[in-house]
Amino acid sequence: MKKIIAPLIITVLFVIYFVVYFAVLISVLPSAFAKIALGVIPFALVAVMIYVCIQRIKEIRSGEEDDLSKY
Length: 71
Fold this sequence. Notes:
Elements: H1 2-28, H2 32-62
Helix pairs in contact: 1-2
């Protein structure tokens, strides 16, 4: 269970960072097109971070903690 905590904490920190980044972009940029274009990137990164975290938790639970040892 301890090995799952680190990926969760990192994921939560990055999600908070990207949400704050998006909020700053909305407040600073004047153009609606720029807000949408640059706002998609943080949300895509949030989705990827959550997906990677879920995959890492599955690896930890299945016992494949060190993938590099296979090579």
